[in-house]
Amino acid sequence: MTETDALYDVRERTENPAHASVDDVITLVLDRARKPREDHHNAHFDEAMAAVVDQYSEDAVRTVIHRVLVEDYPFRTATVNLDMRNFDGVRIGTTAVWTLRELNAQGDD
User: Fold this and answer.
1) CB under 8 Å to 82, separation ≥6 — which residues?
2) Rounded to an integer, what distance in angstroms lies between the CA atom of residue 24 and that of residue 18?
3) A Pfam family name for this chain (predicted)?
4) pLDDT tens for each residue of 70-90
């Protein structure tokens, strides 16, 4: 696979060390779920992930993020066999993509 084939610019797909790893994304999403940012324009992502983690588990969120960013699962079907609503896969996937973009943008500085 070449870098241009990657759906998301995550290190595990692009093999580019300048891109954030899926573990970096997962860590930041879960850290923010534990302690949502206040007065931040993206605080709604943190609050949504806090609710999802409370309802399912950190392991389930971790699995969905990995499936979306690395394994190319659509957001809705990334929840398969996790006893999770498809809608929550969309919430997790959207948050993961925003977090990945944020981390990659930090590397561009």
Assistant:
1) 56, 60, 63, 64
2) 12
3) DUF8158
4) 999 999 999 999 999 999 999
99, amino acid identity: T
Q: DSSP string of the chain?
A: --GGG-SS--HHHH--TTSPPHHHHHHHHHHHHHSPPSS-TTHHHHHHHHHHHHHS-HHHHHHHHHHHHTS---TGGGGTTTT--HHHHHHHHHHHHHHHHHHHHHHT-
Task: Mark residue 32 as left, alpha or beta (left: phi above 0; alpha: psi -120 to 50; beta: remaining).
Answer: alpha
Q: Measured between alpha carbons, how far is 49 from 25 in angstroms, rounded to an integer?
A: 13
